[in-house]
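Structure in, sequence out. Go:
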């Protein structure tokens, strides 16, 4: 599988163009981001530059940690196609939001989950599913207190969406208007700048991109 190197400048431009072309500020209007570590951290910070402030404050970025991709690569290396089918690693939480803190309350917000790539979609689907469960619990508490539950919306933002068969799916309401991918591309090996050992060499290789 060929490698595609992506530079910081390319990512910066991709995000800016996507915000403008997909009208994030006008339509979805995110007011909080949930970045999936570690690939979603830098894209989320760049993305915040192009999102409109709320009440003269920058959009808040919350972080969650999920473990799958590295474990999956190890699993693939250890299991050949000829071997009997063995269950793949499950997605697990390594860091999650603290709903006991009012600062991270997501009820009534337009939440934008941010990651670097939509590959098998397992990690993104897990994040949406678990976040939805937490929101439902918080909503139930408000109803028990006789309070009105404001509408909460979830969207997804990725730098790259690989055009391949996905292991899991996202809810239709996300895919129909709340799914934002800077680029849709074939299933190729992406090398991001935050993984580079030699950033100058990486940037030169990124100039060769034709995708």
């Amino acid at each position: 599988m060929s490698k595609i190197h992506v530079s910081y400048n390319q990512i910066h431009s991709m995000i800016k163009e996507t915000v403008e072309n997909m009208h994030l500020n006008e339509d979805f209007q995110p007011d909080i981001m949930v970045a999936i570590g570690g690939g979603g951290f830098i894209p989320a910070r760049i993305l915040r530059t192009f999102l409109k402030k709320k009440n003269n404050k920058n959009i808040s970025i919350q972080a969650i940690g999920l473990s799958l991709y590295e474990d999956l690569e190890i699993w693939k290396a250890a299991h050949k196609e000829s071997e009997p089918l063995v269950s793949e690693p499950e997605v697990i939480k390594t860091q999650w939001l603290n709903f006991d803190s009012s600062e991270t309350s997501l009820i009534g917000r337009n939440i934008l989950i941010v990651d670097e790539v939509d590959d098998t979609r397992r990690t993104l689907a897990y994040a949406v599913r678990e976040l939805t469960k937490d929101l439902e619990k918080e909503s139930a508490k408000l109803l028990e207190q006789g309070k009105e539950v404001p509408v909460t919306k979830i969207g997804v933002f990725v730098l790259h969406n690989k055009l391949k068969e996905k292991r899991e799916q996202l809810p239709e309401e996300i895919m129909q208007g709340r799914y934002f991918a800077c680029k849709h591309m074939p299933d190729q090996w992406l090398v991001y700048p935050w993984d580079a050992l030699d950033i100058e060499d990486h940037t030169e290789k990124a100039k060769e991109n034709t995708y």
